Amino acid sequence: MKEKYFLGGYTRRVNEGLTSITFDSQKETFTERELIDTIQNPTYLALSKDNRYLFTIEKEEPFSGVAVYKKKHNDTWIKKNYFYHTKAAGCHLFYLDSKKVLYLSNYHEGTIEIYHLNDDEIKHIQTVTHDGSSVHPNQTQSRIHFTSTFNQDKFLYVCDLGSDKIYVYSLAENGSISHLEQSLNIPAGTGPRHLAIHPNQKFIYIIGELNNTTILCHLKQNGHLEIIESYHNIPTDSHPEATGAAIRISKDGNFLYVSTRYQDQITLFGVDKTSGKLSLLQSISSYGKVPRDFCLSHDEKYLIVAHQDSDYLTLFKRNSESGIISLTDTKAYAPECVCILALNNK
Fold it and tell me: Is 23 helix (H, G, I), strand (E, B) or coil?
């Protein structure tokens, strides 16, 4: 079985721009990367569910913004539109298919930028600006790092790393933010980076970038969150510069994975489906430098880690019964990669 993955990353050293790579699970090997487009710092990507549109962050001096690519009949991609208007580049993209709306999280400017896609054209419709700060040196201002609706159209969940808050917004019919439903305070110095939702839709997991924790929250019927418990992703005496990066949960809801930069580690937790609580099952080297992102293959028999500084993907084989991963390969070249995104299963 062959699966295509899109690779987003910085273009500070040797990376040329937006690329893709194909994984052959029968041979457990990757093809050489294919260049989609030479652009600056396509650091985060998003796809429409039908795989027709690929969205990327792009830096085009003196501004930054988003670009839209459309799939052609020969499986190549063409840049259809772009919108550059922010001084600093964003850090995360989320696309809501039902409303054809793209959400850009801007860490440096503390904003959520909202765009609407119409006939291949991307149009900016709203900017939401946050204020706030917290106790860590990286929290002198609001720093938006993640948005998602978690497969429903009613609420948008937002991680503000800078103020140690999770915001829950109601959405208007056009996908713009209507009003604030909840502002959940996270323990000071956590730095909420990304969220993952349990398949049973009862629990949300927050990875703390700055204190290397995973926080379990109950997702209530009214869309609000309630903190239940917190877990250490790495030992407290680990690398002093260690910071949390990516978080993923298996489709069966039994296992949660997180990556930690500079500690360069993947941590596996078992998940109690009734309570949502976690138990540590495995801590393993990522076999690279700065594991910024990772993903599970479609059949979840493999876990693929993208490294920002060591320029190669790490392939792990995964035991679906135990969740345990074991090293398989470290030879796939993917320089400065900070985002790996699989084509959607249709």
Answer: strand
Q: In the prediction, which pLDDT does 346 show?
A: 63
Secondary structure of residue 339 in the 3-state scheme: strand
Residue 129 forms beta bridges with which residues? 111
62: preceding bond cis by omega (within 30 degrees): yes
Burial per residue of 247-261, b for 16 or more beta-carbon CB atoms within 10 angstroms, e otherwise: bbbbeebbbbbbbbb
The H or E element spanning position 96 is: strand 92-96
Q: Note the pLDDT tens digit of each residue in 58-99.
A: 998 899 999 999 999 888 999 999 999 999 999 999 999 999
Q: Which amino acid is at 53?
A: Y
DSSP character at residue 211: T
Q: Which residues of 123-143 are buried (b: 16+ CB within 10 A; e: fewer)?
A: ebebebebeeebebeebebbb
Above 70 in pLDDT, residue 112?
A: yes
Question: Residues 328-341: pLDDT tens digits?
Answer: 999 999 999 999 99
CA nearest to 138, candidates 91, 195, 183, 103? 91
Are the C-beta atoms of residues 57 and 43 closer than 8 Å to each other?
Answer: yes
Distance CA 346, CA 308 (A): 30
260-287 per-position pLDDT tens digit = 999 999 999 999 999 999 999 999 999 9
Write the burial class of residue 217 (CB in 10 Å: 0-12 exposed, 13-18 middle, 19+ buried). Answer: buried
Average pLDDT over residues 138-157: 95
The model carries a pTM of: 0.97
Q: Which strands, in side-by-side order, build the sheet including 45-47?
A: 45-47, 53-60, 63-71, 77-86
Q: Which of 26, 22, 60 is nearest to 40 (CA)?
A: 60
